[in-house]
Design a protein that fits this description.
Elements (H helix, E strand, L loop, with lengths): L16 H16 L5 H4 L10 H14 L4 H14 L6 H6 L1 H9 L5 H15 L4 H10 L1 H5 L9 H8 L9 H9 L5 H12 L3 H14 L3 H7 L18
């Protein structure tokens, strides 16, 4: 299920935009030097280009990811996709829902999440044409995405970002970064950096999230870094593909 993140301590004054931008660029270089460098270079998709198959895939990914490490979901997702007809058609999944569920449970033993994916497919199959639904979702994404099972006020931002909407997802890593830099909202924190640098907010989100997963001391590194050196090691930071 979805759990909203809450403030745990009083906020200090927001960090200056220039300092935030410098810290972000340090984080971006760190990710570019990691095996995950391609995530920074990925072209962000447009939400108007999302197909029913794309939407089903992203919805399933977010449902499975709630409260679970990304590496676990990434390992199991190919087999789960096969169980759900590789997301080709909501109607195909709907017509074979119990078979899909039974097969998927052999790979991911969480009844609630697997059934939520099947239920979402049934909802899509029985609703208006996907193009019409997509228009409605894009007009009010956070509210309408929460009509799907297992999608709450936090995970709605996750799937919104994954289908191309320009938002930042308030997961625990980004929330801690935002709060430690004086921001109550992840959205405001990421938009401040994005606006200052002319960067896509979705990329800001991706860079900071990946940076946090790469470094257990990411709050310290982000607070103390500069673009020329690693604050934890005191070494120059080389830039380029691994």
């Amino acid at each position: 299920m979805d759990r909203a993140t809450k403030l745990t301590k009083p906020l200090s004054a927001p960090r200056a935009e220039g300092a935030l931008a410098e810290a972000y660029l340090y984080a971006k270089k760190s990710v570019l030097n990691s095996p995950h460098w391609a995530e920074v270079l990925d072209v962000q998709r447009e939400p108007t280009e999302i197909s029913e198959s794309d939407f089903l895939r992203e919805l399933a990914w977010v449902i499975l990811s709630a409260g679970i490490a990304e590496i676990v979901v990434r390992k199991k997702f190919p087999e789960i996709s096969k169980c759900f007809c590789n997301w080709k058609s909501a109607r195909q999944i709907s017509e074979n829902a119990e078979e899909c569920i039974e097969k998927a449970l052999s790979h991911f033993r969480h009844q609630g999440k697997i059934r939520a994916i099947a239920t979402a497919a049934v909802m899509l199959a029985s609703s208006e044409p996907f193009e019409k639904l997509r228009e409605r979702i894009l007009s009010d994404p956070i509210r309408l995405l929460q009509t799907f099972p297992y999608i709450g006020p936090v995970t709605a931002f996750h799937i919104a970002k994954n289908i191309g909407i320009k938002v930042a997802k308030p997961d625990r890593h980004l929330f801690r970064l935002a709060q430690s830099n004086g921001f109550e909202s992840v959205e405001e924190f990421c938009r401040t950096i994005a606006h200052f640098l002319g960067e896509d907010i979705r990329r800001v989100d991706s860079v900071l999230w990946r940076f946090a997963t790469l470094h257990h001391d990411y709050l310290y590194r982000f607070s103390r870094c500069n673009t020329g050196s690693d604050p934890a090691m005191g070494k120059p930071l080389a830039v380029g593909r691994p």
